[in-house]
Automatic annotation (TrEMBL):
Residues 183-283 form the Methyltransferase type domain. PANTHER family: METHYLTRANSFERASE, OS08G0411200 PROTEIN. Belongs to the methyltransferase superfamily. This is Methyltransferase type 11 domain-containing protein. Keywords: Chloroplast, Methyltransferase, Plastid, Transferase, Transit peptide. GO terms for biological process: methylation. It is found in: Plastid, Chloroplast, Plastoglobule. The keyword Transmembrane helix does not apply. InterPro entries: Methyltransf_11, SAM-dependent_MTases_sf. It comes from the Eukaryota. The keyword Acetylation does not apply. GO terms for cellular component: plastoglobule. One of its GO terms (molecular function) is S-adenosylmethionine-dependent methyltransferase activity.
């Protein structure tokens, strides 16, 4: 089958906001201090013990909440704090939400659809040209068409379809079920919705670089009747090579039909490895142009020229993908093939 009919899609980011931004607040809010008052009355010792036990329970809950504070500044990778949160109790709405890095003091904001945690977020004068594949998927037209015919063409490249791919991915993700997951380069949120609908994860972060893809993701989530826990879905705009999450804070990262569109797959996988917890799982699908294509003379040189102008990456063997994962500190590489289609998985080594 001709490879030219296969269109790769881009969303170099993983990263976006929630239908309920209050969910993020619980993950990125400052921990409230718990103050204990000691009783001066010795006769109330038993009541004091009971009070301390109750407070210990509160402290433990606060500790667990702190462990879920995963949002970080994409510049210095230190934690983010909410700028306006009186007494640590008020949870602002999505629109106008603002966060600030505790270290470099860079501020980030959210709007009605997503949280913008890209490095250049908030800049007015500076604009950075991105590869063609990146800019293509930032356009309103392609974002609109992605689930309305574009993604369906992937069947010609051996992709079994979103539902089947989701079932295959779940097998790799079994060790981290119940944790949080990033749907990197989520596009219009096709897999983000499947993860949310399954209720297999405590938090689903739909991450992309394209603002228009995230708007489509937001609209589809609003229309999705089978997702009853929409407060557990967070939409974030970010660059896949500068993920706005604390190191070792994420249980799983999924990237569907995206790896070949990342400007630098090695930089992206290195970032994924950084944010994964020990034992965390990376699952991705992409195309491999091996078989008869591997015998084309100077194909590697041709690939470099294609990448130079389009930003799309051409993988020529499973070994390349295994090398990328290994070089970035991931182990246990395994994969499933169907023609040009490949689903791969690798794991962050346990301590």
């Amino acid at each position: 089958m001709p490879m030219t009919v296969i269109s790769g899609r881009f969303s170099p980011a993983l990263l976006p906001i929630s239908l309920s931004i209050s969910r993020v607040l619980k993950y990125a809010g400052q921990r409230r201090a718990v103050f204990l008052s000691r009783s001066a009355n010795a006769s109330s010792a038993s009541a004091s013990v009971e009070t301390n036990s109750s407070v210990d329970s509160v402290v433990e809950k606060e500790k667990n909440r702190g462990e879920k504070n995963i949002l970080a500044c994409p510049i210095c990778y230190n934690s983010l704090a909410w700028i306006s949160q009186p007494n640590g109790l008020v949870e602002p709405t999505a629109s106008g939400t603002q966060l600030q890095c505790n270290t470099c003091k860079k501020s980030y904001s959210g709007n009605e659809t997503h949280l913008d945690l890209a490095v250049a977020s908030g800049s007015n004068q500076y604009s950075e040209p991105m590869p063609l594949s990146t800019e293509l998927f930032r356009t309103p037209l392609v974002s609109f068409l992605y689930e309305r015919g574009w993604r369906q063409n992937f069947i010609w490249g051996g992709f079994p379809g979103p539902e089947k791919e989701f079932e295959m991915a779940k097998d790799y993700l079994k060790p981290v079920l119940g944790g949080n997951i990033i749907d990197a380069s989520c596009g219009s949120g096709m897999f983000s919705r499947l993860f949310a609908r399954s209720e297999l994860f405590s938090l689903v972060i739909a991450l992309d670089y394209s603002e228009n893809m995230l708007r489509q993701c937001y609209e589809f989530l609003n229309q999705e009747e089978n997702v009853t826990n929409k407060e557990k879905v967070v939409l974030v705009r970010a660059d896949i090579a500068r993920l706005p999450f604390l190191s070792g804070s994420v249980d799983a990262v999924h990237a569907g039909a995206a790896l070949h569109c990342w400007p630098s797959p090695s930089s992206a996988v290195a970032e994924i490895s950084r944010v994964l917890k020990p034992g965390g799982v990376f699952v991705a699908t992409t195309f491999i142009y091996d078989g008869p294509f591997s015998f084309i003379p100077f194909l590697k040189n041709i690939r470099q020229e294609i990448m130079r102008y389009s930003g799309s990456h051409i993988f020529l063997s499973e070994r390349e993908l295994k090398d990328i994962c290994g070089a970035c500190g991931l182990v246990g590489f395994t994969c499933v093939r169907n023609g040009p289609f490949i689903m791969l998985s690798a794991t962050k080594p346990s301590r």
